Amino acid sequence: MNILTIDAAAEIEIVAVSSGDSCSDKTKLVDLSHSITLFDTIDSALKDLGITIHDIDCIGVGTGPGSFTGIRIAVSTARMLAQTLDIPLVGIATQLLYASSADTPPGTLVLPAFDAKKKRVFGALYKTTGDSLAPEEIIAPGDYTMEDLVRAAETGHPLIAFGSGSIKYHEVIAEHIPGAEIKEDFLPSGARACRLIEKTYLVRPSDFSDFTNVLPNYARKSDAEVIKNLREKGQ
Q1: Cβ neighbours of residue 188 closer than 8 Å, sequence gap 6 or more
Q2: Is this model's pTM higher than 0.85 or not?
């Protein structure tokens, strides 16, 4: 299968195209808006493999939670492409996409977390299994304090953490989990992300035929929505 996977929920932009055993992985830290870089990066990845967007069999997209703008850009782009090309669309939590890249022994706790401001993170907690692409979910992706996540970590298991939230609150992690490893330069693998999308799709292809089923997971209301609601309530 030819798989295109994209995610823009964090500062890192995941763009990868896989075709058989080959993969063009353009995943990188993006300083500009994802809307400026995304289509050019997709085009570059396709050209690396000598294929066009019309050769793609399935699209995968990270649905968040994370940056409101980034999630909206990635999910809207993926839905538009899936509809135009009439191909399956697989939505995967961004935290799971990141966790699937953790090359660690089974039993390792994996904590991907992005800074959500207001002393909170968009994060999740997983434990790796014998299947590197299918870690066990301990805490589902959502809007938490870092304390919420680390308090659920099982003692006696090594823990690795990455993402802007893990870096910002590294002292909280270290306080609860001595010896935890904070990977400051962690970069998710686009190749693994494509494998996860393909594996998820092949379990039950009929689940992914309707692109409208893939929705963004913002995990909280935007500041604009909060202000609007307060105004409507006269507060």
Answers
A1: 7, 12, 14, 27, 97, 98, 100, 101
A2: yes
